[in-house]
């Protein structure tokens, strides 16, 4: 007698969880930088162990601004890859959309705003970016730790 088995439902649920991948820019969807200063963008790709991206491409608007090959990197038990893009000595032309595009997975984007001295003073008095940034980093750290613990538990059983 053919039909669905209890194990089939578990396998489908497990496959859905394992295939859940994310790509995110750690600094958030809006990043503020200052003219003449460096602006760092950090992309975190949580991937399936057996489908690791071989490269990450960074775009500014539609132009490729960085290509990072991941082939020579060692495999991590975290199933996570971090890529950085540094905008050196930021100018107003550097403002706009930045996209982190890992091979095989969805991309993530952020909008970068470049402020001059006067705009920076107004911005700092009305909006506290460092507090939001620290909160985002803490949340991401907690999510990574929980992901590690959750995946480790499954491998042990």
UniProtKB/TrEMBL annotation:
UniProt keyword annotation of Transmembrane helix present: yes
Domain of life: Eukaryota
Any one GO cellular component localisation term in the record: neuron projection membrane
Assigned keywords, A-Z: Membrane, Transmembrane, Transmembrane helix
Pfam families (UniProt xref): Ig_3
SUPFAM superfamilies: Immunoglobulin
GO biological process, one term: synapse organization
Residues spanning the membrane: 131-150
Annotated ranges, domain Ig-like: 4-100
InterPro entries: Ig-like_dom, Ig-like_dom_sf, Ig-like_fold, Ig_sub, Zig-8
SMART domains associated with the record: IG
Name the record gives this protein: Ig-like domain-containing protein
Taxon lineage: Eukaryota, Metazoa, Ecdysozoa, Arthropoda, Hexapoda
């Amino acid at each position: 007698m053919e039909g669905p088995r209890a194990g089939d439902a578990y396998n489908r649920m497990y496959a859905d969880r394992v295939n859940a991948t994310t790509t995110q820019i750690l600094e958030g969807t809006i990043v503020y930088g200052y003219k003449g200063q460096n602006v760092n963008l950090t992309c975190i790709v949580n991937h399936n162990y057996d489908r690791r991206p071989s490269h990450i491409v960074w775009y500014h608007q539609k132009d490729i601004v960085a290509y990072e090959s991941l082939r020579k990197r060692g495999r991590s038990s975290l199933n996570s890859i971090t890529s950085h893009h540094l905008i050196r000595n930021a100018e107003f032309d550097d403002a706009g959309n930045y996209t982190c595009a890992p091979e095989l997975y969805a991309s993530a984007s952020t909008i970068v705003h470049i402020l001059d001295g006067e705009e920076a003073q107004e911005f700092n008095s009305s909006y506290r970016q460092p507090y939001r940034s620290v909160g985002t980093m803490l949340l991401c750290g907690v999510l990574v730790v929980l992901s590690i613990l959750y995946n480790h538990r499954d491998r042990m059983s």
